[in-house]
Design goal:
This is Aminoglycoside phosphotransferase domain-containing protein. It comes from Choiromyces venosus 120613-1. InterPro entries: Kinase-like_dom_sf. With 335 residues, this protein is an alpha+beta fold. The chain is 44% helix and 20% strand. It folds into 2 domains: 113 residues, Phosphorylase Kinase, domain 1 (2-Layer Sandwich), CATH 3.30.200; 207 residues, Alpha-Beta Complex (Aminoglycoside 3'-phosphotransferase, Chain: A, domain 2), CATH 3.90.1200. β4 and β5 form a beta hairpin.
């Protein structure tokens, strides 16, 4: 575990009523092992390499000689999880979404378990800066597109009046000190296009949308690029399809200290994503013209996501907006 992860873990224990990882591991041995494993099993408990700021996570591994036969993830959280999204995601996608189970509380901290997720977090690939084969990248794009598009229900009318809702979003960005007038204009043009095409959004099916589908939260098989698991469905709700498509941008490019950088293969990767989404929608009886609405839904999701983060002062909010919005069809038409 690197220094940054150790700091995150130490800060969690400063803020909660638990004293240390050792106390958590002892709770697992005293209260959970008999529910999860056979009494004769040889169990090893260790911290997960990637820790979150609001939780502590460890792994109980069942050893069979020199091998690990199976493992269970145990997470201690200060804030209670909303398990609806996880259980609905598990129903729709099976074992790709490890089912989370509430195991009670310990000194006011909520305790959950789930099967250990196969594969490696995609973020590890980004951190290492690996140059992946195109076929590998296309496989990951295909899988993510189908995960996003398959969790669908029929369309329902949007309850937000377009003028008031778009005005509300615009007012949030008015509070942000844009360094580039170009990015501000991209935001305003996007809001205008969404307002003018609001009626198209009502045609889209409702999709179960995890609100934090970042590269930390999906695992891939390193050789093939297949997505093996999708984690953190806390707070997932049904929203118009496309509302969280901006998370797919992490497969089309990456952020640097200087700004957003597209992969050289972006055109091919994005085309594969759109083709896979269309393949799912076509099987559900949607027409090709309905795809027009997906761009407006995606951009609305981008603006909603970053409007909630206007307090960022490190420059990244503006760089993300610039990197994402410059690919909108109405921006390309201006070039």
């Amino acid at each position: 575990m690197d220094h940054n992860q150790e700091t995150i873990m130490a800060n969690f224990f400063k803020e909660c009523s638990l004293s240390s990882p050792t106390e958590c591991h002892q709770f697992v041995r005293d209260r959970l092992l008999h529910q999860l494993f056979s009494p004769k099993d040889d169990i090893e408990i260790s911290p997960l390499l990637h820790q979150e700021s609001m939780s502590y996570t460890c792994v109980a591994k069942c050893k069979a000689g020199d091998q690990i036969s199976h493992s269970v993830v145990v997470q201690f959280r200060c804030i209670e999880l909303d398990l609806y999204g996880n259980h609905e995601g598990s129903r729709l996608h099976g074992t790709m979404v490890p089912l989370v189970t509430f195991r009670g509380s310990h000194h006011g901290v909520y305790v959950y378990t789930s099967p250990f997720a196969a594969g490696k977090p995609y973020v590890e690939t980004l951190i290492r800066g690996d140059s992946l084969p195109l076929e590998n990248m296309l496989t990951t794009v295909k899988d993510l597109a189908r995960i996003m598009a398959q969790s669908t229900n029929p369309a329902i009318a949007d309850i937000h009046p377009p003028d008031s809702y778009v005005t509300q979003l615009a007012s949030k960005f008015d509070k942000f000190d844009f360094k580039s007038p170009t990015t501000r204009q991209r935001v305003l043009r996007s809001l205008s296009n969404i307002r003018d095409n609001w009626n198209l959004l009502a045609k889209l099916p409702q999709a179960l949308s995890p609100p934090d589908l970042t590269p930390f939260n999906y695992h891939v098989e390193p050789i093939s690029g297949d997505i093996t698991a999708v984690l953190d469905w806390n707070g997932a709700t049904y929203q118009p399809l496309g509302r969280n498509f901006h998370f797919a941008e992490n497969l089309f490019g990456f952020m640097t200290k200087q700004g957003w950088q597209d992969h050289p293969e972006r055109t091919e990767l994005e085309a594969r994503f759109k083709d896979e989404v269309w393949d799912v929608l076509r099987s559900q009886g949607y027409a090709k013209e309905d795809l027009r609405a997906l761009e407006y839904s995606k951009v609305l999701g981008i603006l909603e996501y970053y409007a909630a983060r206007v307090e960022w002062r490190n420059g990244y909010l503006e760089m993300f907006l610039e990197g994402y919005l410059r690919h909108c069809s109405w921006e390309v038409d201006l070039v």
